[in-house]
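Q: Protein A?
A:
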Amino acid sequence: MAAAWSPPIRPALYAENTLIAAILNGEFPPGSTLPAERELALRLGVTRPTLREALQRMQRDGWLDIQQGKPTHVNDIWVSGGLNVLSALVHSDQPLPADFVPNLLSVRQVLAPEYTCAAVQNNPQQLLDFLKDLPAPQAAPAEYASFDWRLHHILTIASGNPIYTLILNGFAGFYEQMAQRYFHREEARQASRAFYIALQASIKAGNPAQAQAVTRRVMEDSLKLWQASRTNK
């Protein structure tokens, strides 16, 4: 049987990905300038129009500051970057900052209770249908990771606010990868299973505020468990 065919990467996307990697690995650190357009196009093996397309996309996302007639400056992405930068970071081969996951969990701690409350108000039956099949206490970390991702994805959709879903989708793949590491701890699996059961009870009781509270509590606990797991390594 023939191997699955993968379409070749577009030259502009290749140039963009290569430049992003060069920024992340420190070849072009924040505050530095990129080589002149002609030189950079030759180094990347692309045409100048293709390079311009890549640079414009990177300017849009906050990686670069481009001003006509001046060198192209590399921005500090933690100041100038947008959501597309987050997606690029989590799918990059470069190491993430040590505080990246705790910071991400802190943001989830703020967002998850809100979209859970809205989801319970808007579409409780969809949530109950999903929560019928909880992972078993002895289920593998990968099963918990997959279930947790799908639950939060459904919660964001049921909330009625598509921005929550767009934000979550930016971490697809990375979310489950980190979650598998998290769920290797039995304590983490137990805490999340208890949350699923408590959430189910809140939905059945028709109590969005209670669902919001139990979600906030498990988000706080998950941050503590992650930090403890990193400390004990």
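Q: Protein B?
A:
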Amino acid sequence: MIEALFTRLPYVCTVVLMGIGLYGMLFKANLLKKLIGLNILQAGIILFFIVQAYKIGATVPIVDATFGAQAAAYVNPIPHGLMLTAIVVSVATTGVALALLVRIYGTFATLDEDELLASMRRLR
């Protein structure tokens, strides 16, 4: 059992990261903690795609005389490029969310979800 976990350690790390992120998003009341959970979840998803694209013994996708034109000898660069784009989107999303959190805190003086909802109901 332990040996099976160690042979699949990247997948175990991916599941742990996704679980921590999902827990943070669903069960934390503070909006900043929810944002941190979202970032952890995104990191787990990115790690999952990178682990899936990894090939043991493969090389970069530049035609080499020793490997020839065997497609199985090369790593597919598309998932890596997509995850690079996902990282950029994640950073942009985090920046916008932090700006919104600063604005929310400036207006309501709290980031607790229940207190925010109560304050917003009083404003109506």
